[in-house]
Design a protein that fits this description.
The chain is built from no helices and 32 strands. The protein is an all-beta fold. Strand 5 and strand 6 form a beta hairpin.
């Protein structure tokens, strides 16, 4: 929209579906302040399924990138309630990659998501959500079955990829996501974060997988706060085999400073090192935490 405060109501996620306006190179919904409006949380989308988008296509020299298969937000902070974002995105290929199969958030985009499902999307960075320099609020959100992958580039964050961001997640489930670049490294089956400080409360991170580092969470130069979080049954492996690759089945920390209270880390596995937590040059604070059967 070019103006703020637009409210778009659908009858239900089951029978009200929004798809792309045309073929390749389009997000289903584009929120961009540069279009002329100031998109804040009075702009509302409710009661829809958003599907079939492959992202805004941008090029720089010989490199192309698609952003935001389902929803693209640039300096925009809409409100989404009772929305399903499913079946969007693309992996990319030679001299091409993708950001945010389900959603792409950039330049101080701080949307509010409540009762939202993000499933079955894919991208190179952030199969479900990719955020850069943004701080969205997610409440009662499920992020499942998304994939960060591709054949010609590292992949990050099957469920969520964030850099320079501080999102707030409450009552969120992140499950069955994967980071699985076929020929390169893969980081963070559930969440991959860099230079970020997210707050996670009452969050479940389970049954996620990566080829290399951080089946549940991969964190680099980040300071997340986790309270009442369960990180269970995540896997770090290489091509499905238990060999010299795959560290940190639950969490992989590199130059990170996580703070964890009432966190359970259990049933996670790694092909190489540390089924529970793998840390290098990191400082952890754990209070009333359980590490078991990793």
């Amino acid at each position: 929209p070019a103006t703020n405060g637009i409210k778009l109501f659908g009858s239900s996620e089951e029978d009200c579906i929004i798809g792309p306006s045309s073929g390749w190179g389009n997000s289903v919904i584009l929120f961009d302040e540069e279009l002329g409006g100031t998109i804040d949380n009075t702009t509302l989308i409710s009661g829809f399924t958003i599907t079939g988008g492959n992202g805004v296509l941008e090029s720089s020299g010989s490199i192309s990138v698609s952003k935001g298969g389902g929803i693209y937000c640039y300096n925009a902070s809409p409100t989404l309630t009772n929305v399903t974002i499913s079946g969007n995105g693309s992996f990319g290929g030679f001299q091409y990659y993708s950001l945010g199969g389900g959603m792409y958030l950039s330049e101080n985009s701080n949307p509010t998501l409540t009762n939202v499902t993000i499933s079955g999307n894919n991208a190179s960075f952030g199969g479900g959500i990719c955020m850069t320099g943004s701080s969205p609020t997610l409440t009662n959100v499920t992020i499942s079955g998304n994939e960060a992958g591709g054949s010609h580039r590292d992949s990050y964050g099957g469920g969520i990829y964030m850099t320079g961001s501080s999102p707030t997640l409450t009552n969120v489930t992140i499950k069955d996501n994967s980071a699985s670049a076929s020929s390169y490294y893969a980081y963070g089956g559930g969440i991959s974060m860099s230079s970020s400080s997210p707050t996670l409360t009452n969050v479940t991170i389970k049954d996620n997988s990566t080829k290399y580092y951080g089946g549940g969470i991969y964190m680099s130069s980040s300071s997340p706060t986790l309270t009442n979080v369960a990180i269970t049954d995540n896997v770090a492996y290489y091509n499905g085999t238990w060999d010299d690759y795959g560290d940190g089945g639950g969490i992989y920390c590199y130059n990170a400073s996580p703070s964890m209270e009432n966190v359970t880390i259990s049933g996670n596995t790694a092909g190489n090192n540390s089924g529970g937590i793998y840390c290098t040059t990191s400082t952890l604070v754990l209070v009333n935490c359980i590490l078991w059967n990793d």
